[in-house]
Structures are given as C-alpha cells and as structure tokens.
Amino acid sequence: MSPLWIAIAICLVLLGMGLGAWLYTRRPSAGLDDRYTPEPLIAREQVAMLEYLIKTFPGQVVIPNVPLRNMLSVRRAANRKRARQRLDQHKVDFVVCGDDGRPVFAFDMEQYHLSDANAKAHQAKVKNRVLKTAGVRLVYVKPSINRMPSPDEFRQQLKLAALPRPAFNRRATDRETVSPRQQLESQFSEFDQTYSPSTFRESEVMGMSGLAELDEMLGRPGSRRVRDSGPDSLQSGHSGFDGGTNDIRGG
Q1: Distance CA 136, CA 130 (A)
Q2: Where are the alpha helices (DSSP H) in the chain?
Q3: pLDDT tens digit string along 22-62?
Q4: In whole angstroms, what is the distance from residue 61 CA to residue 181 CA?
Q5: Is the confidence at residue 182, as pLDDT, over 70?
Q6: Residue 163: is it exposed, middle or buried by C-beta count within 10 angstroms (0-12/13-18/19+)?
Q7: Where exactly are the structural domains of the chain?
Q8: Is the full-model pTM beyond 0.70?
Q9: Which has the closest alpha carbon to 63: 46, 88, 80, 78?
Q10: Residue 108 — left, alpha, or beta (φ > 0 → left; ψ -120 to 50 → alpha)?
Q11: Cβ atoms within 10 A of the Cβ of 161, count?
Q12: Please, what is the Cα angle at 235 between 230 and 236, to 5 degrees?
C-alpha cells in the first residue's frame, strides 16, 4: 500500500474517532451528578404583603409575581400579535382571584424610580389600561404593611373600587366591528358616569390615596351616590372624564 493511502486511512480513522467522541458527549445524560440551587419565588419584602393580602381576602387565592400573559388573553384587538406582545411586557406583584379562578384585583408595591421616571409612569398607565379592559382593578399599595389600613378596612375600600367583569361567554373576532356604543363606553368609564367628581380620574393608576378618597366620597353622609336604586335614580352632574383618558374597557 502506498504511503498516500496509508495517510488517508489514518485521517479517516482519526475523523471517525473524533465524530464518535462528539456523539458520545451529545447523548442524553441521566444527570446523576447534576446539582441544583433553589431560587426565591418571592422577594423578602413581598412576604409580609402577601400575608396581609391573604388576611384581606380570606378564602380567596392570592398569587405573587404573575405575568399578564398568564392571567389575561386577548378578547378583541386590531392587531392581536401586538396585543399579545403587550401582555408579555408586564407583570404584577400580586393577583387576587375570584371564585371562578379569574383575577379580580391586581396589586403592585409602590417603588420610587430616580431614573426613567417618565418611562416607568407610562408603562404603569399602559398596564393599568390593559388590566381595566379585563375588569381587573390595579392598585398600588404601600411597600410596608405598617402604612396600610387594617385588612377589614382595606377590603371594604376595594369593594367600592371593583370593576365590572366583561362577558366570558364568547370571544370577539378581529373582524368584528366596534359599535358606536362600545366606542362611547371606551371613552367614558362607568365610574365617572355614576359617581360624583373627585380629584381621582379613572384613567389614572389607583393608589392608596385615591382609594381612601373614593371610600370617603362614597361613604360620607349625603353622598350623591344612590345605592341599588336603578338607572333612573342616578344623580346627574359632572363626569370625572378628563378628555384624555385611554380607558378602553367597554366591549
């Protein structure tokens, strides 16, 4: 055999050995020598707030750190892909579920941003608008439970701030046209049509001060709100609609 064929044979043997070694390293491993480290599912500062919310909503499910994509789905959108991407961009610190397992309240703990404050505020408004279209009230709570009202008082305040739930019996399609009534409802929230004016605007993200103001406004004697009296007994007057709201809950 000539030296050339001997060299070719040696190269082929070496190539085959290398390929076999590579395939051996690529085969699935049983993982008997693998070791893992537990990661925190909830931040230390969130633990006390989680316990507080469980006391506020006894018998209801409270879940921490929930991405919006896990709690909402697109009901109607001009661009469903972008609407789903919007869900991917946001999460909330806590979610409280109703008896049907669907979210009814979402909570974020207040944070003070020294940088990109305007961008953070814009993102908060977008998240609030998205949640409102699903009938989920977003409330910003204090970072310490020492600055929060008692669980019973907080629960009563939240009852006043609860949003109406959208219909779940069907899904709207992309080709569905939006009626003039739905367009009007998208601009005027039910809150602003029903209650007397206040400094809080329904297009804003609700914090503890807005929640306390709502409680004081609706709970004080002589309030213009008429409870359970039917549509004909609603007091006429100013709406809280500020002309620039992005409320799109209607429909």
Answers
A1: 9
A2: 3-26, 44-56, 80-88, 117-133, 151-161, 180-187, 190-194, 208-219
A3: 777 766 667 788 899 999 999 988 999 999 999 999 999 99
A4: 35
A5: no
A6: buried
A7: 44-167
A8: no
A9: 46
A10: beta
A11: 18
A12: 125
Q: Say whether pLDDT at 215 is over 70.
A: no
Residue 101 CB contacts under 8 Å (≥ 6 apart), including other chains: 61
Comparing 14 with 2, the larger pLDDT belongs to: 14
Q: Given pLDDT bands bounded at 50, 70 and 90, which one contains residue 242?
A: very low
Report the C-alpha gap between 62 and 57 in whole angstroms: 8
Q: What DSSP letter does each residue of 205-234 carry, written as one string?
A: PEEHHHHHHHHHHHHSTT-S--TT--GGGP
* CA 171 – CA 74 distance, rounded (Å): 9
**Cβ contact 176:75 at 8 Å:** no
109-164 pLDDT tens trace: 988 766 777 888 888 999 999 999 999 999 999 999 999 999 999 999 998 888 88
- Two tokens at 56? 């506020």
Per the CB < 8 A criterion, the answer to whether 127 and 206 are in contact is no
70 touches 63 (CB < 8 A): no
pLDDT of residue 205: 75
Phi, psi angles (nearest 5°) of residue 103: -70, 140
Phi and psi at 193, nearest 5°, equal -80, -25
What 8-state DSSP symbol labels residue 135? Answer: T
